[in-house]
Design a protein that fits this description.
85 residues; single chain; 4 helices
């Protein structure tokens, strides 16, 4: 499964588990408007690390924090490529 599909699938699953209404997710959706709260994002980052084997937030000190769903996905895509290299 691609990184994109993994991230989006986990976001939807966590929203369901946490009984949160989730927005229509596309690359332009702001993370703060996604429907997920800080607990949901903490769960998301932990699950993505377990599933993808990377945590981009600890891989570099010069990280720019994502603002949109697209930026969040791209962050994980880059981290997966860096880890594989």
């Amino acid at each position: 499964m691609s990184v994109r599909l993994t991230v989006l699938g986990q976001m939807k699953q966590i929203a369901e588990e946490q009984q949160r209404s989730i927005a229509q997710l596309d690359d332009a959706t702001a993370l703060v408007e996604s429907g997920l709260d800080s607990l949901c994002f903490a769960i998301l980052v932990a699950r993505l690390e377990a599933e993808l084997g990377v945590d981009p937030f600890t891989m570099s000190e010069d990280i720019l924090f994502p603002v949109t769903v697209g930026e969040f996905i791209a962050l994980y895509e880059r981290a997966a490529v860096d880890e594989a290299a």
